[in-house]
Design brief:
By secondary structure, this protein is mostly beta strands. Helices cover 11% and strands 34% of the residues.
């Protein structure tokens, strides 16, 4: 029974954080639309200690972060702009507003940057952790993969 309550609470939190996922009074007459943004199997996690963290990240035009890693699996969703990213061992990718992505735990972000020099980028990162841990950990600079 406790596992159901945690799962139900997690599902309710996710539904309440995604605009339009739960109809409110103003939406009752409008059937709206439902769109599956992403579906991802997660690695085995300790169900007794699950914790969800939702982080909003914004980079101004040309902005970026230093190389880093996330100890937990991450699902990201680009709200506005274009995000340029590269995880070690994978090709560089640009995600645009409305697109989502998944990151395995402990992957090293060589690049996490705004792809535009004129407009900001903003994205949400959902971290699913099975222990208390920082969402991001700094890693040493790793070669020429970063570019201005």
């Amino acid at each position: 029974m406790p596992r159901f309550n945690r799962a139900a609470s997690l599902l309710a939190f996710i539904c309440l954080t995604i605009p339009g996922s739960v109809p409110g009074p103003a939406q009752a007459a409008d059937p709206g639309r439902v769109r599956l943004v992403t579906s991802q199997a997660l690695p085995r996690l300790d169900g007794d200690h699950l914790r969800l963290k939702l982080v909003e990240v914004s980079y101004g035009p040309g902005g970026s972060s230093e190389p880093h890693s996330h100890p937990c699996p991450v699902i990201g969703y680009v709200v506005e702009g274009e995000l340029r990213t590269q995880v070690k061992g994978q090709p560089e990718v640009i995600y645009r507003a409305g697109e989502s992505f998944y990151e395995e735990p402990n992957g090293v972000h060589l690049v996490s940057a705004n792809a535009s020099q004129e407009r900001p980028v903003r994205f949400l990162a959902y971290f699913t952790c099975d222990r208390e841990t920082p969402v991001s950990v700094a890693v040493p600079e790793s070669g020429p993969a970063r570019r201005p």
